[in-house]
Amino acid sequence: MWTFTKYGFFSAVCARQGDGSHGSPVDPTRTMVRARVRAHLEALQAQYPDLLGTSSIQSTGHTDYAYRIFLPTDTWVEVVARLARETDYDNFKDAVGRHQGRNGARYVHALHDVWEVMHRLQQ
């Protein structure tokens, strides 16, 4: 699942069993939340320290998402529920711009690109 939030962009998938090797079966009780920007995971942890504060961010240079955390699926479900409850804007891209400020300019630009691609799908 891709999740675009004020805090960043995340890709959540089932973690694999055991050591997580390719080909291992997935473990639906564990979620791997991945990000392309470390600061996005750090911002999510800062927003929800009671849920994510003890999750260590792992870094890898050989995968398409360089940063990841592992957590129980029920914890990820609670994070997503809280994200939905705190929606307080009528324009997502503008809210991200206000929240991220200058540091998030690249993220906001990427959101406009995603919007454009998905708009073409609608046409």
Protein model, in words:
- Helix 4 packs antiparallel against helix 5 (105-122).
- The longest helix is centred in the last third of the chain and has 18 residues, at 105-122.
- The protein is α+β, with helices and mostly antiparallel strands and 123 residues long.
- Strands 1-2-3-5-4 form a five-stranded antiparallel β-sheet.
- The protein contains five helices and five strands, in the order E-E-E-H-H-E-E-H-H-H.
- The protein has two domains: 2-87, no CATH class; 90-123.
- The mean pLDDT is 93.
- Number of DSSP helical runs: 5
Widest beta sheet: strand line-up: 1-2-3-5-4
Structural class: alpha+beta
In whole angstroms, how far apart are the ends?
Answer: 24 Å
Helix content: 40-55%
CA radius of gyration: 15 Å
How many domains in all? 2
* Beta-strand percent range: 15-25%
Question: What structural keywords apply?
Answer:
5 helices, 5 strands, 44% helix
Task: Detail the topology: elements first, then pairings.
Blueprint: E1 2-4, E2 9-16, E3 26-35, H1 38-47, H2 49-52, E4 58-59, E5 67-72, H3 73-85, H4 92-100, H5 105-122
Antiparallel strand pairs: 1-2, 2-3, 3-5, 4-5
Helix pairs in contact: 4-5
